[in-house]
């Protein structure tokens, strides 16, 4: 860690022992806990909201299954204590889309009603919001009745059908209402966070703090600057090696994906066998590029996260070590822009990894077996290349973050 000293002929003086630092500390003591608490709440609520949205989609399909078969007159066949459930997939997807749309309308209705109650003014009415909620609940009640009549046809399930239908449709209504509430909660927390973060006095202090950092950087000795340049070169060499390793391992990570694709399109596979390994060059190249794209997307997402974290450390803990947190203090607009980019990049990377993981599981199941043990082993085996990819990208992002720190420091030298 660097000793933050300003060299002078009379000795050494601590640049950060100033009124600017004292003002920063005073403001952080006032708002720091509130900001961190709101950010932690937003993260937990965002995860809950994500899981609720997934639950809405899954329960919409499950609830639509009974509606579809009830409308088409498809019965449940019980043979040798095994339930044979048949359905029309196209019709099921159509009904699922309708049920999902009703749930989204109910979610928006709950959100709008809560928003109305918060900002209610004299003479305003909540009839539209309550109408939306009421109509949506009527549709879900109809879905419950249809599921009830469908599951009643199972021998010995007359009483249980009440609870089965309630479990599916009632659960769907519950998670939809909860999702609307958490959507409202996220907006409230974001408004509170913005009010805490955007303070004129804090913005002024951070502007002066940037100038303080520039003074410190320009006070560094020639030996320290040369050390930074050497560290930059070493980090760049390390980055080249890590990128090479990532590109080298990509074909091995893509092997299961390529074989699954080749199995789906055997006429275009052009199989090649080398030392007992059977693969399709065309699909292996395609899958390798898919892995490489995911590799660099994860690196970018992780690097953005480290960049934002470094700026937050300077704001809340002060400037201590440019190797770890850099010398850049980001503004609120810059942070929001980077967070949006990080979300988009991470979403695309996770989507690619989901495809890779699913196809690897499918390939290993065909090789190991489709029984319970085979599926479990296939799942664990498919985790290996996925974990390797994430580990490589995390290491590379740390190296790139250090490179950015050194480049930013050198760029502000006079």
Describe this structure as you would to a colleague.
This protein has about 425 residues and is mainly alpha-helical. Helix content is about 80%, strand content about 5%. The protein is built from 11 helices and 6 strands. The protein has helices at about 20-70, 90-120, 125-150, 160-195, 200-220, 220-255, 255-265, 280-315, 320-325, 330-370, 370-410; strands at about 5-10, 10-15, 75-80, 80-85, 270-275, 275-280. The strands form 3 sheets. Strands 1-2 form a two-stranded antiparallel sheet. Strands 3-4 form a two-stranded antiparallel sheet. Helix 1 packs across helix 2 (about 90-120), helix 2 (about 90-120) packs antiparallel against helix 3 (about 125-150) and helix 6 (about 220-255) runs antiparallel to helix 8. The longest helix has about 55 residues, at about 20-70. The protein is flat.
β-strand amount: under 5%
User: Helical region count?
Assistant: 11
Rounded to an integer in angstroms, the radius of gyration calculated over CA atoms is 29 Å
Distance between the termini: 23 Å
Q: Sheet bearing the most strands, described?
A: 2 strands, antiparallel
Structural class: mainly alpha
Poorly predicted runs of 5 or more residues: 1-12, 79-83
Q: Strands of the biggest beta sheet: in what spatial order?
A: 1-2
Q: How many strands appear in the DSSP assignment?
A: 6
- Range of helix content: over 70%
> Looking at the chains present, what oligomeric state does this protein adopt?
single chain
Tell me the overall shape.
flat
Mean of all residue-level pLDDT scores: 84
Please provide the ordered H/E string of secondary-structure elements: EEHEEHHHHHHEEHHHH
């Amino acid at each position: 860690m660097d000793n933050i000293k300003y060299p002078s002929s009379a000795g050494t003086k601590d640049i950060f022992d100033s009124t600017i630092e004292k003002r920063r500390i005073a403001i952080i003591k006032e708002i720091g806990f509130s900001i961190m608490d709101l950010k932690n709440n937003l993260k937990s609520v965002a995860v809950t909201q994500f899981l609720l949205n997934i639950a809405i989609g899954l329960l919409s399909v499950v609830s639509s299954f009974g509606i579809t078969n009830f409308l088409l007159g498809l019965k449940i066949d019980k043979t040798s204590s095994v339930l044979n459930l048949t359905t029309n997939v196209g019709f099921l997807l159509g009904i699922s889309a309708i049920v999902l749309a009703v749930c989204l309308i109910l979610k928006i209705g709950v959100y709008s009603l809560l928003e109305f109650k918060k900002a209610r003014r004299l003479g305003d009415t909540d009839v539209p919001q309550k109408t939306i909620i009421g109509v949506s609940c009527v549709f879900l009640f109809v879905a419950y009745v249809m599921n009830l009549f469908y599951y009643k046809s199972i021998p010995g399930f007359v009483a249980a059908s009440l609870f089965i239908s309630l479990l599916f449709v009632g659960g769907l209504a519950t998670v939809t209402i909860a999702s609307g509430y958490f959507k409202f909660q996220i907006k409230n927390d974001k408004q509170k966070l913005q009010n805490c973060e955007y303070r004129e006095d804090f913005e002024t202090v951070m502007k002066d703090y940037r100038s303080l950092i520039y003074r410190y950087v320009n006070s560094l000795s020639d030996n320290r600057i040369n050390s930074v340049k050497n560290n930059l070169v070493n980090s760049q060499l390390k980055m080249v090696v890590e990128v090479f390793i990532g590109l080298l391992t990509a074909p091995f990570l893509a092997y299961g994906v390529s074989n699954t694709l080749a199995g789906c399109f055997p006429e275009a596979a052009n199989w090649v066998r080398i030392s007992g390994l059977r693969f399709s060059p065309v699909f292996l190249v395609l899958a390798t590029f898919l892995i490489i794209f995911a590799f660099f997307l994860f690196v970018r997402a992780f690097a953005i996260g480290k960049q934002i974290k470094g700026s937050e450390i300077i704001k809340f803990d002060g400037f201590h070590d440019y190797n770890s947190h850099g010398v850049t203090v980001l503004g609120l607009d810059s942070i929001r822009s980077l967070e949006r980019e990080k979300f988009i990049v991470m979403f695309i990377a996770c989507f690619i990894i989901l495809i890779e993981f699913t196809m690897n599981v499918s390939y290993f199941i065909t090789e190991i077996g489709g029984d319970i043990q085979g599926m479990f082993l296939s799942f664990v085996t498919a985790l290996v290349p996925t974990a390797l990819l994430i580990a490589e990208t995390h290491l590379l992002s740390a190296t790139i973050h250090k490179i950015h720190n050194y480049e930013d420091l050198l760029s502000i030298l006079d």
